[in-house]
Amino acid sequence: MIAASARNVVMEFEGGGGRTRVLHGASIEVPAGGLTLLVGPSGCGKTTLLSVLSGTLAATSGEVEVMGERLSDLDDAARVRLRRRRIGFIFQQYNLLPSLTVAENAAIPLVTAGMKLSEASRRAQPVLERLGMAAHLDKLPRQLSGGQQQRVAIARALVNEPALILADEPTGALDSETSAEVMQLLDALNRQGITVILVTHEADMAAWARRSLLFKDGRLVADENNRKNRDLTPITRGSA
């Protein structure tokens, strides 16, 4: 099964007295069950492509399919339902609400789907416990380290039991040791069958994935097979 695909995707934005093209006919295909990196320098279009795959941005032209659904066939409400039911999101900035506890922050996707906060928080607790956050359920984000906050963000992505996780620079704000911990978590989730597509500008993160799709100037320029053996010890990056 193909988890996500883009065919000849063009993305243009209005602004500055004209149109700026960010994606120039990008085409990718991501099989279900993989951990795939979208790699390239800042501004090359990889985050835009992730947004197109999520359905939060509509491509100017081209075809996008996610979890068997052609996005151009879906109206806005159907795209929202697809995201809520099948996709989890992880961001570089943790985007935790400062007035909510760890359990409440992780429960947000269930609340937006109509569940009461108290019940949603109870549903989120086992996910947080799996991620080593059992002792922090009632803490506020300001009481957590960066790595702990990212664990809450990962729990939030998992609480709706998604088949696909889209991660945008999830280690970009972390030091090398914490980055390795987060990538170990994502690797473990992938081994459990969740497809992961991860955006990064750091080429050495390729040690964590079987496959890297390299982008430059809005185009896919290389498709690399990284690791024949997923049990190899990944390299660690330098200090952030």
- Per the CATH scheme, the topology name is Rossmann fold
User: What proportion of the residues is helical, as a percent range?
Assistant: 25-40%
What's the CATH H-level homologous superfamily? P-loop containing nucleotide triphosphate hydrolases
pLDDT averaged residue by residue: 89
| Major β-sheet strand ordering | 6-7-8-3-9-10
Major sheet summary line: 6 strands, mixed
Number of helices: 7
Kindly name the structural category: alpha/beta
Strand-residue fraction? 25-35%
| Shape assignment | globular
The parts where pLDDT drops under 50 for at least 5 residues are 228-240
Cα distance, first to last residue? 37 Å
CATH top level is: Alpha Beta
How would you characterize the overall build of this protein?
By secondary structure, this protein is of the alpha/beta class. The chain has a single domain, classed as Rossmann fold (3-Layer(aba) Sandwich), CATH 3.40.50. Helix content is 30%, strand content 29%. The protein is built from 7 helices and 10 strands. The strands form 2 sheets. It has a 6-stranded mixed beta sheet with strand order 6-7-8-3-9-10, with helices on both faces. β1 and β2 form a beta hairpin. α6 packs parallel to α7. The radius of gyration is 18 Å and the shape is globular. The C terminus is likely disordered.
